[in-house]
Design brief:
By secondary structure, this protein is an alpha+beta fold. The protein has one domain (6-102): Arc Repressor Mutant, subunit A, CATH 1.10.10. The chain contains five helices and three strands; from the N terminus they run H-H-E-H-H-E-E-H. The chain has helices at residues 6-14, 16-29, 48-55, 59-71, 92-102; strands at 46-47, 75-80, 85-90. Helix 2 packs across helix 3. The chain is globular.
């Protein structure tokens, strides 16, 4: 999913808890500091419980922030059908679209 409304993204990230959750998901999903095989690239998904463990935020706060991030296209989501909960990672397509939008000539 690409970002369709840049102002909606800014508005979502202006909420401190949403920005915090976004940062935790971004760091957790990108394997910061973890070694991978040369030439491979992998992003894992982060669960509600992982974000709670990292932040001490309640499940309701984490899920509400994730819902805002999903609504503006910043998260890829996978649903665990057995357990019934979502896992998230930052949408690379959305970030690439945002980066392309930010560097277009003539934009302020």
């Amino acid at each position: 999913m690409a970002i369709e409304d840049a102002w909606a993204v800014v508005d979502a990230l202006a909420d401190p808890e949403t920005l915090y959750v976004f940062g935790v998901i971004a760091v957790g999903a990108t394997h910061v500091g973890m070694k991978t095989e040369p030439g491979t690239r992998s992003m894992r998904y982060v669960t509600t419980f992982g974000v709670q463990r990292q932040t001490s935020l309640s499940r309701e706060v984490v899920e509400s922030a994730a819902a805002r991030l999903k609504a503006v296209g910043l998260l890829d989501v996978v649903v665990d059908e057995e357990r019934g909960y979502e896992s998230w990672r930052v949408s690379e397509a959305a970030l690439a679209a945002a980066a392309g939008e930010a560097v277009r000539p003539g934009r302020g």
